[in-house]
Design brief:
Helix content: over 70%
Distance between the termini: 32 Å
Number of strands: 0
Radius of gyration: 17 Å
CATH superfamily: Ferritin, core subunit, four-helix bundle
Shape: elongated
Largest sheet: none
CATH class: Mainly Alpha
Structural class: mainly alpha
Number of domains: 1
Strand content: under 5%
Length: 176
């Protein structure tokens, strides 16, 4: 992200990036479903919902700050993949890009003495640590297993947990 853009301009751009990421995870989930890999599909459907939620949290922040926001189109979404491993590697790369974008947002807020913006971004920085770690784990498991059934079993056993309610998360636009 260019350094000369303000925090709010970067945040508007990040809303688009977050909605694009949600659709990217949706495309990956459909790919996994078509490959009869329900656990990988479930992981990516959940991440699609999560990314949509992140974008909506940013929308709500902009609304709360009386900053104009308009929702436009998405960036390009990849829907064809060579293999489950290639899909997860691609998604991990996208998470790393998102981490750089979120870090740039936090830095822009700090550089502009926007303490509210900087505080707002802290939650997203923590979420990115979790997201990159989870995708790295999936890629590592895919690299270690020759059989996709074993990968599916690992996800079922180790990554399927109860949904946690994060009471520290910023409020989402449209949420009650």
């Amino acid at each position: 992200m260019p350094e000369n853009l303000s925090f709010t301009e970067l945040l508007r751009d990040q809303v688009r990036a977050g909605l694009t990421a949600a659709h990217q995870y949706l495309a990956a989930a459909v790919y996994f479903d078509a490959q009869d890999l329900p656990e990988l599909a479930g992981q990516t459907y959940a991440r699609s919902t999560s990314n949509h939620g992140h974008a909506m949290r940013m929308v709500q922040y902009l609304l709360d700050r009386d900053v104009p926001i308009a929702i436009g189109g998405l960036d390009e979404v990849r829907s064809e993949f060579d293999s489950p491993r290639a899909t997860i590697a691609f998604l991990l790369d996208r998470e790393r890009v998102t981490t750089a974008q979120v870090s740039a947002l936090a830095a822009a807020a700090r550089d502009n003495n926007d303490f509210l913006g900087e505080q707002f971004m802290q939650w997203f920085l923590g979420a990115q640590v979790d997201d990159v770690a989870a995708m790295t784990t999936l890629l590592t498991v895919l690299d270690r297993q020759d059989n996709l059934f074993d990968v599916e079993e690992f996800i079922r056993r180790e990554l399927r947990g109860t949904v946690r309610i994060d009471t520290t998360a910023p409020r989402m636009a449209g949420a009650t």
